[in-house]
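Format notes (please read before filing issues)

Several people have asked whether sequences and structure tokens are stored in separate files. They are not. Every record keeps both together, in the order shown below: the sequence lines, then the token lines. Line labels are part of the format and must not be stripped during preprocessing.
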Amino acid sequence: MAFAVFTMLFAASSTAWAGSPHFVNVSYTVSDNTLTVQGKEAGLGNETQVHIVVTATAECINPGQHHPKAENKASFSAEGLFPVQNGRADFSLTLTATFQPDCSPPMTVQYTSITVTDVDHNVTKRLL
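Then the structure lines:
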């Protein structure tokens, strides 16, 4: 009887842990007009892969640090499927902002509203 109770408690705690996906150690880097977001998602169950999407708004900023008009900013995204091992998935996604006309020097690209989302579990983390 005690073994059955222990088994039920263990199964319940394992299920609770596996049922709470969340992002950990997520960071981003920007180089010119390229944004890279990398990190880990933990608390995943027995699935084989997870679908991650990164979205961001890129703005072409003038030398006076003035924010752009509507035509000088746009939303960009990148997505991928990443393998799950032991309830965790490491990911890295890169997106590159392109503008028409180009955002060329002395203008610079600045990213805002950076989010990473696990589409399968509807989990989102806002980075900026």
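For reference, the curators noted about this record: Residues 2-18 form the longest helix (17 residues). The chain has one domain: 21-126.
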